[in-house]
Design brief:
The chain has about 525 residues and is α/β, with parallel strands linked by helices. The protein has two domains: about 110-365, Type I PLP-dependent aspartate aminotransferase-like (Major domain) (Aspartate Aminotransferase, domain 2); about 375-505, Aspartate Aminotransferase, domain 1 (Alpha-Beta Complex), CATH 3.90.1150. The chain is about 35% helix and about 10% strand. It is built from 17 helices and twelve strands. It has helices spanning about 35, 50-55, 75-85, 105-115, 115-120, 130-150, 160-175, 195-200, 220-225, 250-255, 335-340, 355-395, 425-435, 460-480, 485-490, 500-505, 515-520; strands at about 150-155, 185-190, 205-210, 230-235, 260-265, 285, 310, 320-325, 330-335, 410-415, 440, 450-455. The strands form three sheets. It has a seven-stranded mixed sheet, sandwiched between helices. A hairpin with a 2-residue loop joins strand 8 (about 320-325) and strand 9 (about 330-335). Helix 4 (about 105-115) runs antiparallel to helix 12 (about 355-395), helix 7 (about 160-175) crosses helix 8 (about 195-200) and helix 12 (about 355-395) packs across helix 14 (about 460-480). Bound molecules: pyridoxal-5'-phosphate (PLP).
């Protein structure tokens, strides 16, 4: 049993417990799909005066069912509330997903984002009626440029991967402007999967750069690959092993000398914000995940925000639109006007409008409530927390790069310590669910076997980290003692047991078919 004061031990809860009639477990309710609890005639809204509605719609009315579930308001509220109770969230506990930077979302940011002047405006409103919003975008842009030491930023990309696309399109435009059609982009082995995917999406061939035994980019191997066909490199710093790339400035110099550009994946900026300015390392373009570093919410597919900072060399190719001062007013510069200004060779637009306003408000709120010194402290605490985990677990787990010094914001372990136990990284993750923890990132990065990548972020307390560490140590003890069933059969206590992950990925069922129709079809 763990030293956290709880008096239950796994097993005692269900040993003599009856099977419930409902399939529910106390407050954990078994919830069908929304279509299964819906009725075609039910609606959450009662429009009493139907004839008047018909006139208001000019006689237009629906002539067939639209296939949406019909439920009353309380049924909808209960359905989603029940589902939310089966979910794990940063508001419930540590979310140690490496590379994802799942930190607390301060409620002050939420309050500000809901102010009507930010929440209720429309992107097609005249610029003079949204001066405050434009000012906020401009101020956030100034913070990002200052923190990165870079002269230009594009605010419109909607996530990290979208930012990568933005940066690589600018790099391609810069080469095209010089009349060059370079074909290859170099990407380290340890890169986030989005990096090679982005390069390929832009029509480049991807060539992998090997890692050194210390988990860094192999500088000599990179230099050997540079040549007139190389458009640039995409390097993550800190990298996905949670390590700083100390030779990045030298890498940039070599790439520039060979006529290429340096794209930096800045999703892990959390670890270095306020400490290192990417511009000083010779980077030409880098995305910043506001939804990671600057605490705006993420998960479940969004909404994110991935502004991209640019060097002097790439700034003319940055996308539209952008905010510019025009006398006392701020304006949003669109296509035609731009050709003469700072974005003279802009590659065009990334999105219909100018980015994620709600995320901009939250990110600036976060920056202003911390201040420059506070942001530096954020990076220091994130790194301290990760190193605390690394050092307390390295004796029991295998930490492949721990000997080469401290890590940055995340601690990486391999599955070597599980050798001969019959237990895998996946089994350990499932057992963590039983203990009430969201698992860490698994099997990524690919450079270590059975990877376990743990990122605590700065918002976990020491007591919280200790509880998490004790849990992992207890599980490690059980694994080494041969308690295989506890892992192979896990999760025992989740709403659903072990799922068929291969079938989920290979044969996803993404639409709902009414059961009796499906039967008729057979
Ligand atoms: C999260 C992440 C990305 C992608 O960001 P999204 O906002 O999810 O598109 C890219 N690279 C790294 C290193 C990341 O951690």
């Amino acid at each position: 049993m763990l030293k956290n004061g709880r008096q239950t031990s796994p097993g005692s809860v269900t040993e003599n417990a009856p099977q419930t009639f409902t399939g529910n477990r106390a407050l954990m309710l078994d919830e069908p799909l929304i279509f299964e609890i819906a009725g075609p005639k039910t609606t959450g809204v009662d429009l009493m005066d139907v004839p008047q509605v018909e006139t208001r719609l000019g006689g237009l009315e629906r002539n067939r069912e639209i296939g949406l579930p019909g439920l009353a308001e309380p049924e909808v509220v209960r359905h989603y509330t029940r589902l939310s109770r089966m979910n794990y969230a940063i508001d419930m506990g540590i979310f140690p997903l490496g590379s994802c930077t799942m930190k607390h979302n301060p409620r002050l940011n939420e309050k500000l984002a809901r102010l009507p002047g930010f929440a209720d405006i429309h992107p097609l409103q005249p610029a003079q009626s949204v001066q405050g919003a434009l000012e906020l975008i401009d101020e956030l842009a100034t913070w990002l440029k200052k923190l990165c030491g870079m002269p230009e930023v594009s605010m419109s990309p909607k996530a990290g991967a979208h930012g990568e696309l933005c940066g690589m399109l600018a790099i391609r435009a810069a080469h095209e402007a010089r009349g060059e059609a370079r074909k290859v982009v170099l990407v380290p082995e340890s890169a986030h999967g989005t990096n090679p995917a982005t390069a390929a999406f832009c029509g480049y061939e991807v060539d992998a750069i090997p890692a050194t035994p210390e988990g860094r980019v192999d500088l000599a191997a990179l230099k050997a690959k540079l040549g007139p066909d190389v458009a640039g490199v995409m390097i993550t710093n800190p990298n996905t092993c949670g390590l700083f790339e100390p030779e990045l400035a030298e890498i940039s110099e070599a790439v520039h000398q060979a006529g290429g550009y340096v794209y930096c994946d800045g999703a892990n900026f959390n670890a270095i914000v306020g400490k290192v300015r990417p511009g000083d390392l010779g980077i030409d373009a880098m995305h910043i995940n506001l939804h990671k570093t600057f605490s705006t919410p993420h998960g479940g597919g969004g909404p994110g925000s991935g502004p991209v900072v640019f060097s002097e060399a790439l700034a003319p190719y940055a996308p539209l639109p952008f905010v510019r001062k025009a006398g006392d007013m701020l304006e949003l510069v669109e296509e035609e006007q731009a050709r003469t200004g700072s974005h003279s060779d802009s590659f065009g637009r990334m999105v219909a409008f100018h980015g994620q306003m709600g995320m901009f408000v939250r990110a600036l709120s976060y920056m202003k409530s911390h201040g420059a010194d506070g942001l530096r402290q954020v990076a220091e605490d994130a790194v301290l927390n990760a190193n605390y985990i690394l050092r307390r677990l390295e004796g029991e787990l295998t930490a492949p790069f721990a000997a080469s010094g401290p890590c940055m914001h995340e601690a990486l372990f391999s599955d070597e310590w599980l050798e001969d136990t019959g237990i895998t990284t996946l089994d350990l993750a499932k057992a963590m669910i039983d203990e009430g923890y969201h698992p860490m990132t698994m099997y990524f990065p690919l450079v270590v076997h059975g990877a376990m990548l743990i990122e605590p972020t700065e918002t976990e307390s020491k007591a919280g980290l200790d509880r998490f560490i004790e849990t992992i140590l207890a599980l490690a003890g059980a694994a080494k003692a041969g308690d295989v069933e506890r892992f192979k059969e896990a999760p025992f206590y989740a709403p659903l047991r072990r799922l068929d992950e291969t079938a989920a990925a290979r044969k996803p069922i993404l639409t709902w078919t009414e059961p009796d129709l499906a039967e008729a079809a057979e």
